[in-house]
Amino acid sequence: MLKWLANIILRIGGWKILGEIPSIPQAVFLAAPHTSNWDGFWLLVYKVAIDLDVRFLAKDTLFWWPLSSSLRALGAMSLDRDDASGIVLQLVGAFEQQDSLFLALAPEGTRGWRPQWKTGFHRISSAAGVPIVLARIDYDKREIDIGPTLPPGRSLEQDFNEIRAYYIDVRGRHPEKQGPITFMTE
Question: H helices of 13-86, where?
């Protein structure tokens, strides 16, 4: 019933569903661009429509009753942004503890403009030994897509061109909030 309703909502919204769920047990999903709260709504509807069991991070201030129960049911994991130092290790631990885990992360880390993307997704993928799956929401084309899978164990420099090519023409709801597709140097 929910899957049917989610497909109807996407159709009414004018969205096209592209790509397929990869047949792998674990991955970090790179979801971009993230320029609006609407991204979360449409991606949750998409997740239900295609029956994708993917987890995502949400700021801890959203976890109050009764919203917290709904967020957890949808796949949210609480993130304390004031103590982000241990997040990579916590998420690597989650991959080690679960045989099946898809984790979606927004590389911008926020809905606002940033001068570069964060690289935590790549550090998590490398440390956990799981692939990166590229996914996008394009408001100009009204497409939500699961794209290519990048194998684990490569450097960020090796993955950069594929990541940039996949996202270069994608437009978020608020394109002025999209920063350049470059990465922090560490």
Answer: 37-49, 67-74
